[in-house]
Design a protein that fits this description.
This protein has helices at 35-45, 60-70, 85-93, 108-120, 142-159, 174-187, 202-218, 233-246, 270-283, 299-302, 334-343, and strands at residues 9-11, 14-16, 23-27, 52-56, 77-80, 98-101, 124-130, 165-170, 193-194, 224-225, 255-258, 289-293, 308-313, 316-321, 324-330. The two termini are 27 Å apart. The longest helix has 18 residues, at 142-159. The chain has an eight-stranded parallel beta sheet with strand order 8-7-6-5-4-3-10-9. Helix 1 crosses helix 2, helix 7 (202-218) runs parallel beside helix 8 and helix 9 (270-283) runs parallel beside helix 11. The protein contains eleven helices and 15 strands.
Length: 347
């Protein structure tokens, strides 16, 4: 699909915007001063697809942690600043790659000084506003009011010669968020960070976020994304990868298809088997299409475009490759035997 050709923005070793890949980001679940926990979280998530991590800065202990964290990770770090721009100045001096601020909570004179410091240190700034952070007339067009507020901020940045900017406007209402981002894309040429704020727990948050992320991404809108969940951060990264992969925007990821099961199914372990197979594919970076089907009535035909698959029969599974039957495997042995077959496709 055609990506929106936005400005290019440098964040550490990443180039965001234009036709570059959509960057997956998250926010640390730990207080930044807890250096060991933050570093461990980042380094565990990086191999799984995390490309950009945001950290909260609420006191000087967090500021002191920045250099220690930076020295132990390999991805860019974004400092999230609220109310006190003093922390933004300190964070830049400590070496963060970008900061996220809401200009409405800041002093204009200090903000101008901050823009100069960021420009001189090649630090990007994300202007991030939420519906709850500005005065809104609920009886008027909400997305339009949000865009008008963003226009004020962008104009201030540009008047002061700062263009290394990413924009985001989030709301917990998916439809308001969708319309707002469509207007953002029409109004500005800057890269957009897209997502739904406070989206919810696990499946609820994933569905709520995907409901607006998918149509935006299909239109080429969005240079960085986060599916923000009330859940361990690994679930955010996996949700982002799966969504991008299904939209042909993240090729290096496995595809698993599995049927919902019905009265034709002659095996008991299909759900458990599909779950274990997906984890094995992800853990071993086996990026092929795999089908786990409950029966052979239409299982093999439905999964024939998969590289390899299984279709349940009486107390057994039929192993097939590209729609062709290969052999039968007893249900009790199927996972271990199937792992051997999958290992043939390891990179």
């Amino acid at each position: 699909m055609k990506r929106e050709e936005t400005r290019l923005v440098k964040v550490g070793n990443l180039t965001i915007g234009h036709s570059n890949e959509v960057v997956i980001q998250s926010m640390s679940s730990f207080k930044t001063s807890k250096v060991k926990k933050v570093v461990k979280e980042i380094n565990e998530l990086t191999p799984l697809g995390l490309q950009l991590m945001r950290i909260s800065i609420i006191d000087n202990n967090d500021i002191k942690a920045i250099k220690k964290i930076k020295s132990q990770i390999n991805i860019p770090l974004v400092a999230d600043i609220h109310y006190s721009l003093d922390y933004a100045f300190k964070a830049i001096k400590e070496g963060v790659d970008a900061i996220r601020i809401n200009p409405g909570n800041t002093n204009p004179l200090k903000l101008k000084e901050l823009l100069n410091l960021a420009k001189n240190n090649n630090v990007a700034i994300r202007i991030g506003i939420n519906r709850g952070s500005i005065k809104i007339d609920e009886n008027k067009d909400i997305p339009l009011q949000l865009i008008e507020k963003m226009s004020e901020y962008v104009s201030f940045f540009e008047q002061n010669g700062f263009y290394n900017t990413v924009l985001s406007i989030k709301d917990s209402d998916p439809l308001i968020t969708l319309k707002t981002y469509e207007l953002l894309s029409e109004t500005f040429s800057y890269p957009l960070h897209i997502g739904v704020t406070e989206s919810g727990i696990n499946e609820i948050g994933t569905i709520r976020s995907s409901a607006i992320l998918a149509p935006l991404l299909l239109k080429g809108i969005g240079s960085t994304i986060r599916i923000s969940l009330t859940s361990p951060r690994i679930n955010e990264i996996k949700a982002c990868k799966r969504l991008l992969h299904d939209l042909n925007l993240y090729p290096n990821y496995p595809t698993l298809i599995s049927c919902p099961l019905c009265g034709r199914s002659m095996v008991k372990s299909n759900k458990e088997l599909a779950t274990k197979v997906l984890k094995y594919l992800e853990d071993n970076n086996i990026n092929i299409k795999v089908a786990i089907m409950g029966c052979v009535v239409n299982g093999i035909n439905e999964g024939k475009n998969a590289t390899i698959g299984l279709a349940g029969t009486k107390n057994s599974y039929i192993l097939f490759k590209n729609g062709q039957k290969i052999r039968e495997i007893k249900e009790k042995d199927v996972f271990n035997e199937f792992k051997k077959e999958l290992d043939l496709y390891k990179n």
